Input
Amino acid sequence: MNVDLILFLILAVVAVATGLGMLLSRNAVYSALFLVLNFVTVAVFYLTLAAPFIAISQISVYAGAIMVLFLFVIMLLGTERLAPGKGLPWQRPLAVVLAFLLVAETVYLLVARTPAGGAIMQPGPAINSMDAIRELGSALFTQYLLPFEATSILLLVAMVGAIVLTKQEKGGRK
Amino acid sequence: MVPVNYYIILSAVLFTIGALGVLIRRNPLIIFMSVELMLNAANLAFVAFARATGDAAIGYRGQIFVFFVITVAAAEVAVGLALIVQIFRTKHSINVDNMNSLKG
Output
């Protein structure tokens, strides 16, 4: 059992545990904090997979910007806990059964049916992280320039949309 | 090295946790967080496959996909949270069971 595998198993346990913590917390703030830890764990996975730029983006965009937005909205609305409502009684057990079916199906299709030889990760090229970031940047600004620019339009539209949706109309529509 | 299969299994488990969250939680904020978790699981599979391929150019393409997915997720969260705030203003509740009419 090598060091990589031990590291992977520890991180995988943390990732699954924080995911379940997010799912099962009654308080939405705890859910958000569990999810931050989950995102950080996934960022460490990206580092072990030789994707340092994606790891840093993950930390700054997901764990930074998106989760701050979530916490802000949770605390703004004051909806950490919802009053227990009357849901459908059979919904939870059915959801759990379907989730087990989904994971069994996915693992069977993706893992059990792949040829054994093609599944082992190769050593891979270019471990040097600065080289990797340089290559990624040049690909992003040459071959993928059009999608990159389209992304800027998308972010602009999202920004304008968020402002328009939350703007209080003058005179108090209420 | 860790077999890429392990990453795929982990990705599938995380995705299922996210799907379960969408199905059983009644708080739309937590449903949103579950959607983020599912996007993250897909990203993890992308990066794992990008690493598993021997070709460096294809590997970078996988990472560029993840970059775009992160961007779209950020835009989606901004608009979605604005919608939730607006729904809370009109209905004074964000329980998804109460959102059963199109006109507030």
Summary: The CA atoms of residues 27 and 99 of chain B lie 11 Å apart. Chain B touches chain A through 72 residues (CB under 8 Å).
